[in-house]
Amino acid sequence: MILILFTLVLAEMALILSLLFRTPLRKLVIVGLDRSKQGRGPLVAKSVGGTILVFFSSTIYSVFSVQKRLSEAGFVNPTDEVLMAHRLLEASLIGFSLFLAMIIDRLHYYIKELHLLRERVEEVKNLKKDYEHKKSTDPAEVKKATQRIS
């Protein structure tokens, strides 16, 4: 289980790094995240997230029960100590994985919003340029130009 969790955390970290820097891989990741958030994707993501959250709470409960057993016994049992270390590592990896998943979701959202905002700014710049161009041409100049043409 630990190997799977380490792989998951490393994959999420690689995904975050690909989202942070503007590369061709970033566009591919954004398209993949867009498609995963369509249709049944959000339902599947919430189900998986809920399952992982339940597993996380179960692991935390197990850690507290081992800690309680250690404090009641009064001495350190080597088996309980190894079990405690294993459960703590599992709990920390699961918690970190959930945190990274939340970071990936927010990064994707902010990148999409930034892209839409840049498009809107570009439209406003074009409208302003058109307005300035129309404003700079006087009606008298337009009449003279049309008379010359005809």
From TrEMBL:
BAP29/BAP31 transmembrane domain sequence ranges: 4-123
Record localization: Endoplasmic reticulum membrane; Membrane
GO terms classed as biological process: endoplasmic reticulum to Golgi vesicle-mediated transport; intracellular protein transport; protein localization to endoplasmic reticulum exit site
InterPro entries: BAP29/BAP31, BAP29/BAP31_N
UniProt superkingdom: Eukaryota
Membrane-spanning intervals of the chain: 6-22, 43-64, 84-104
Topological category with respect to the lipid bilayer: Multi-pass membrane protein
GO cellular component: endoplasmic reticulum membrane
Keywords: Endoplasmic reticulum, ER-Golgi transport, Membrane, Protein transport, Transmembrane, Transmembrane helix, Transport
Functional note: May play a role in anterograde transport of membrane proteins from the endoplasmic reticulum to the Golgi.
Assigned protein family: Belongs to the BCAP29/BCAP31 family.
Protein name: Endoplasmic reticulum transmembrane protein
